Each structure stands twice: as structure tokens, then as C-alpha cells.
Amino acid sequence: MARMLPLLIVLSLAGCDSPGPEFGALPGTRVVVEGSHFAVRRKDGTAQAIRLNAEHRPGTMARGARAIELGTGCRIRPGSLSGDPAVIYARLSCAAP
């Protein structure tokens, strides 16, 4: 049983939606892009997308960027996308209401 513990921990965290401190108090908007599941949070002019499903295929950053645009209703500022396939950050350009 002790050998199974690390596996159980990894599996329990695989779908984790734990935002960083700057986005911690904000609720996530669930967005699905081409089978990739994300929780998107927006704070002022920045956004964060956390990938919720386990996957190993190309294009996760692009799908995360699309999730940010769909989840926030804003465009991503050119050159501002950063992070990795699990947690993606972007600065936003939003039209005035």
C-alpha cells in the first residue's frame, strides 16, 4: 500500500484547479477548447488559464490562449502569452463596454 501512495497523490492532483496567489480569490470560468479543459480567471488586465485535464499533445498553449479569450471576452495582447502547458498567463486588451 505504501508504494501506491505516490500514485494516489499524483492522480488526485491531476485535475487540480489551484490558482496562484494573485488569482486565488477569483472564481474560475470553465472553458473547453478542442477537448482541453481549462479554468480561466481574470484580474484587471491579466488572465490565467489552468489546464484541468491530463494530456500530452501538441498545441496546448494555443488552446489555452483561446480559452483565455473565450473565458474573458478579451483579446490577448501580442507577445504577452507566457507560462507552460499547465498554467498559462496573458495580458489582455479589452474593448470598453
UniProtKB/TrEMBL annotation:
Domain of life assignment: Bacteria
Protein name, per record: Lipoprotein
